[in-house]
Specification:
Number of helices: 3
Number of strands: 2
Shape: elongated
Strand content: under 5%
Low-confidence stretches: none
Largest sheet: 2 strands, antiparallel
Order of helices and strands: EEHHH
Strand order of the largest sheet: 1-2
């Protein structure tokens, strides 16, 4: 199957198809979610070129992801189960997402927003670490009581 790349603009469209080399485009590349069934064009990859659109999309994406992590961390902290594996997994996920923000989004989004997002993630990490220390201390108490 021969895959072709097409570029369609609303302005000055005269009916001809223009082939674009995506490797040479500077922008942010992502895969759309394709949740809506549509019998038209299937989009596998998009490249945003306009910096304003990249900024808006990445800010929305980061904000949504931090809100999801916040809900997840609150759920874990409020949970009575003192199993530290869930806490460690959540802490690892936050650390991984922080590195994604630092490595991938830093060149597309303004520095102030990145710093603010990293501060929010750092607060979530701090809460998880304190809960993890508390879980370890309870586990240590339980093992010391059993040994007596």
């Amino acid at each position: 199957m021969d895959y072709r790349h097409y570029y369609i603009t609303k302005q000055s469209y005269n009916g001809e198809v223009i082939d674009i080399k995506y490797d040479e485009l500077e922008g942010f590349c992502f895969k759309p979610r394709n949740k809506v069934k549509y019998e038209g064009i299937l989009v596998n990859k998009m490249i945003l070129v306009k910096p304003f659109l990249i900024d808006i999309m990445l800010k929305k994406k980061v904000r949504r992801k931090i809100e999801n992590y916040l809900k997840y961390v609150i759920e874990i902290i409020d949970d009575e189960d003192e199993d530290p594996t869930n806490l460690r997994n959540a802490l690892n996920d936050l650390t991984r997402y922080k590195s994604i923000i630092n490595n991938n989004y830093k060149k597309h989004v303004e520095k102030e927003y990145i710093d603010e997002s990293l501060r929010k993630i750092q607060i979530l990490e701090k809460e998880l670490k304190s809960k993890l220390e508390y879980a370890y201390s309870l586990e240590l108490e339980n093992t010391s009581k059993k040994s007596r």
